[in-house]
Design brief:
200 residues, alpha/beta, thrh gene product, domain 2, 2 domains, 9 helices, 7 strands
């Protein structure tokens, strides 16, 4: 019994914060979990920048409405879901992910939630659980599933390494060099092939 666990941003959809950095003209917001391994630190820093510029949830959601899944992502997900259960495990937030899930055909996603004031200002965030990606794959394993995991960033490494099979997908040269033991792929066809082989 397998469950495939996938990261969202960089794997199935473009990085939301990079898209928003470009839309808002604030280059500092391009920093992601590919650059900063400490997610808590990264989010607090992002919230500070939003406050400084008077930007809130509405502005980010306007950018997200224009984001489409990466080319081939929905077809990849549809095929994958035809023969295995798939859960997207992301450090993003429900308020960001919902429109993207609609475009991907409503796959299951486990993510976090933002704390938003009535004014629309993002005041904080609530993580579902500590080390959510690793904790989730371990919980799935505890109820009898083997997990296969794939992602592109530092915050995906724990779930990739804890799974029966784990793959980097469109990751950075630095992460690939630091973790040469992890197979790394650039196309959905390669990733699909690797997942199928892992399930044999």
């Amino acid at each position: 019994m397998y469950i495939t666990c996938l990261d969202l941003e960089g794997v199935l959809v473009p990085e939301i914060w990079i898209a928003f950095a470009e839309a808002s003209g604030i280059p500092e917001l391009k920093k992601t979990t590919r650059d900063e391994p400490d997610y808590d630190k990264l989010m607090r820093w992002r919230i500070g920048i939003l406050k400084e510029h008077g930007l809130g949830l509405k502005e980010i959601q306007e950018t997200i409405a224009k984001i489409d899944p990466l080319p081939g992502a929905k077809e990849f997900l549809d095929e994958l879901r035809s023969f295995t259960q798939v859960i997207i495990i992301s450090d993003t937030f429900t308020q960001f992910a919902t429109p993207l899930m609609q475009k991907l055909g409503w796959p299951t996603i486990f993510c976090n939630s933002l704390e938003v004031a009535e004014s629309g200002e993002i005041t904080g965030f609530k993580m579902r659980i500590e080390q959510s990606k690793l904790t989730t794959v371990k919980a799935l394993q505890s109820i009898g599933y083997d997990t296969i995991a794939s992602g592109d960033s530092y915050n995906d490494l724990s779930m990739i390494q804890a799974s029966k099979a784990g793959f980097l997908f469109r990751s950075t040269e630095k992460i690939k060099a630091d973790y040469p033991q992890l197979p790394a792929f650039e196309t959905y066809d390669e990733l699909m092939e690797a997942i199928k082989k892992a399930m044999v």
